[in-house]
Input
Amino acid sequence: MNPVKIGIAGLGTVGCGTVDVLIRNADEIARRAGRGIQVSRALVKNISKDRSCDLNGVELTTNPEDLLNDPEIEIIVELMGGDSGIALELVQGAIACGKHVVTANKALIAVNGNQLFAAAQKKGTMIAFESAVAGGIPIIKVIREGFSGNVIRRLAGIINGTGNFIMSEMRTKQRSFQDVLVEAQDLGYAEADPAFDVQGTDAAHKLTILASIAFGIPLQFSHVYTEGIDKIESEDVEHAKTLGFRIKHLGIAAQVTDGIELRVHPCLVPENRLLANVEGVMNAVLVDGDAVGPTLHYGAGAGAGPTASAVVADLVDVVRTLTTDPENRVPHLAFQANSLSDIPILPIDEVSSAYYLRLNAINRPGVLADVTRILGDLNISIEAIQQKGDGSPDEFLPIVILTQVTLEKNMNCALERLAQLETVNSDIVRIRLENLNWS
Output
């Protein structure tokens, strides 16, 4: 049987990695897919640029229409990135032409996925996006297919390797955020403009996708509460370590009584939890199903090989289903399109969490009592409290407090009142605390 011909848009790190895997493992891929997979054309910005992969027999073009109008190309692989522009137009054009799509573009799926999936279903084509989340970890397939007999109750993940590298280096080597960020850029882990990574946008894109397939809800990127790691200070990393915690940048989604939590932010995590021990640029996702219980999925979240592994796996899945009835394919978002739920996404004010607080207060009798009274008035119970240092009277000293679980709006009110005390510096640090005791 003739090989399936594909067009690749983007021959950067992941694009060349995909070409390498398709060539290196061609026989094994054909055995799994039932047919060979051959790159026919590739869309690039600069045809004359040197590339690391073998492009023998691949026609390069700078015109997207060359991929869309080629009748032999059955699948288009979009690896350019971005939620608009050429990437979006190419995917929309592919669907309109009846071609299947494989993409690693989490922003495209998180922002435009609802419309794209509806168009693809109407046209009878597939959009596969395993490589959009957590690189080489097959977490989409695990949740969408492996856990299809479960009610997913919650998930939490380290889903941005750049942020995890920064937090790991800050803890293990007592370095500042800015210092580690510069190294991450030098190593190629962070972009020249690292905002998407360190401000949480990248993780929010990925969490949007995970929550949709876990809970059967439409993609709702605009409803994800997002907070980055760019305000984390070295002293808080050290205080957390002293208290038996590590600070991790987590994406958290959970079904609760009143709706669904969707949030990305730094968290104190107990140092004995598995997620707390995921270091460097690695990713990990903890998923809790009612039948299977908590499961942890760990691996490389980015890079040529791991991401190409996921891209090729999607290609194999698409090739396997080229001759199947479109109505009997695995749904894009795990649940049948007409069965997606309208469960509300909770605003962050209605989310409950424990908290780490650090505030600077004057070393004077009665100040600590004022602090604890404000927390008590708002029904915020204290788990632990420490005053750091042995300063002289009337010197500002740091106070570290761990609270029990309370509503975010109660904590916000408490922080406003604490900041109004003349004896307390208004620059109060607040980091949420997640015990992740799901067993």
